[in-house]
Amino acid sequence: MDEYQEIIMEIITNSGVAKSKAMEAILLAQKGQTERAQACLQEGKDELVKAHRAQTRLIQSEAGGTAHEVTLLMVHAQDHLMSAITTRDLAEHIVELYNRLNHL
């Protein structure tokens, strides 16, 4: 596996973990465990930072003149990243709503 593919796999892996953490946070908030839910959201954010850093390496490489073939795997990685970001954003709102409901 070359460096390009390794970076793509890093994006997929980190994004997948981030999305899973967001979903876990929602389930924890549903059960009234909002502190644990917040911790999961933070873990997910940390994974998204890693994914963004990997993506940035690819962008900088291309900006520096190294062209990369757009493969199905790369499209898949970008899809994972965008899906994880959306899921995280929604999870933050859902956890907050459960937190408010639990205090009523």
From TrEMBL:
Highest classification ranks of the organism: Bacteria, Bacillati, Bacillota, Bacilli, Bacillales
Provide the species name: Paenibacillus oralis
| Binding of Mg(2+), residues | D79
The record, for CDD domains, names: PTS_IIA_lac (cd00215)
Which InterPro entries does the entry link to? PTS_IIA_lac/cel (IPR003188), PTS_IIA_lac/cel_sf (IPR036542)
The record's cofactor note says:
Binds 1 Mg(2+) ion per trimer.
The record's listing under Pfam families reads:
PTS_IIA
User: Which residues are named in the active-site annotation?
Assistant: H76 (tele-phosphohistidine intermediate)
Keyword Transmembrane appears in the UniProt entry: no
Keywords in alphabetical order, please: Magnesium, Metal-binding, Phosphotransferase system, Sugar transport, Transferase, Transport
Which GO BP terms, alphabetically? Answer: phosphoenolpyruvate-dependent sugar phosphotransferase system
Residues with Phosphohistidine modification: H76
Which co-factors does it depend on? Answer: Mg(2+)
Xref: PROSITE patterns: PTS_EIIA_TYPE_3 (PS51095)
Give this protein's Gene Ontology molecular function annotations: metal ion binding; transferase activity
Protein name as catalogued: PTS lactose/cellobiose transporter subunit IIA
Give a yes or no for keyword Transit peptide in this entry.
Answer: no
